[in-house]
């Protein structure tokens, strides 16, 4: 298994990060893998961290009883899965399903929140990296809603 610190440093989400911060992140990280079809997270479950995809593809889905789920976004190698760990109540806002075998580094939220509270530099660096991701994901949902609820030609 690769060293989480090495994966963190070369992952696009943390490109150019201060080495001391990558050391701290690595203290909260470990590698995980999931087979195709497995749910990595379910809507409403505690969001205990985020994942840095090393390989594989996941779908962010909204469950609809009696209907097929809505795929909000598909994420691939080099992307980050999970922002719900940042803001209380720390619950997943959608389902996350592996579309093919996934290998990732998971960063434990409780560990990282604790370290961020005691190190404002770390907290600010994470804020600068996660806020654009929040905006990007919100825009993806907005575009998906436009597609789902768009007008039909007459």
From TrEMBL:
This is Cyclic nucleotide-binding domain-containing protein. Pfam families: cNMP_binding. CDD domains: CAP_ED. PROSITE patterns: CNMP_BINDING_3 (PS50042). Residues 13-113 form the Cyclic nucleotide-binding domain.
């Amino acid at each position: 298994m690769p060293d989480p610190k090495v994966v963190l440093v070369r992952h696009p989400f943390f490109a150019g990060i201060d080495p001391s911060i990558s050391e701290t992140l690595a203290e909260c990280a470990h590698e995980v893998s999931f087979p195709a079809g497995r749910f990595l997270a379910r809507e409403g479950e505690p969001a205990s961290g985020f994942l840095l995809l090393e390989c594989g593809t996941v779908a962010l889905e909204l469950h609809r009883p009696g209907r097929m789920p809505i795929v909000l976004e598909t994420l691939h190698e080099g992307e980050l899965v999970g922002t719900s760990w940042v803001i209380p109540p720390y619950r997943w806002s959608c389902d996350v399903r592996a579309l093919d075998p996934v290998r990732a580094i998971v960063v434990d939220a409780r560990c990282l929140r604790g370290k961020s509270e005691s190190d404002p530099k770390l907290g600010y660096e994470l804020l600068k990296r996660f806020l654009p991701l929040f905006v990007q994901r919100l825009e993806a949902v907005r575009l998906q809603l436009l597609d789902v609820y768009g007008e039909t030609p007459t």
